[in-house]
Design a protein that fits this description.
Membrane topology: Multi-pass membrane protein
Number of strands: 0
Organism: Macrococcoides goetzii
Protein name: ATP synthase subunit I
Distance between the termini: 20 Å
Number of domains: 1
Order of helices and strands: HHHH
Subcellular location: Cell membrane
Helix content: over 70%
Keywords: Cell membrane, Membrane, Transmembrane, Transmembrane helix
């Protein structure tokens, strides 16, 4: 199975579901918090893909230097927060921060599910 298909099965489909749910909630409420959640969740999905790509490269590599893509993930988080800096009345920083943390929640859930198997 290709790297992207595996990533899609493990993480991306859940991000897509969450983004769709948050978008529907936003259409009903027009809340700046939910809009921040959408931005944070999209950035979180991109950051998770970077993390997963670097993890799979590290597993398949014999090199001494292993990159986790931390710098790129920091840049993605900074870019998400710049939406709030530019438009503070439109986006909620707490929503963006919670959306960015979804990656870590999904990694923990995936790890616990892997231990159960």
């Amino acid at each position: 199975m290709s790297e992207f298909k595996t990533f899609f099965k493990l993480f991306l489909q859940y991000f897509i579901y969450l983004i769709l749910i948050f978008f529907i909630i936003y259409m009903l409420t027009h809340s700046d918090f939910v809009l921040g959640l959408i931005i944070g969740t999209i950035a979180s999905a991109i950051g998770t893909f970077v993390w997963y790509h670097n993890l799979s490269k590290a597993i398949n590599s014999d090199a001494l230097y292993i990159s986790s893509g931390m710098g790129i993930r920091f840049l993605i988080a900074i870019m998400a927060c710049l939406f709030w800096v530019r438009y503070p009345d439109t986006f909620n920083i707490v929503g963006i921060a919670l959306g960015l943390m979804l990656t870590y929640v999904m990694i923990i859930i995936h790890g616990v599910n892997s231990l159960k198997k």
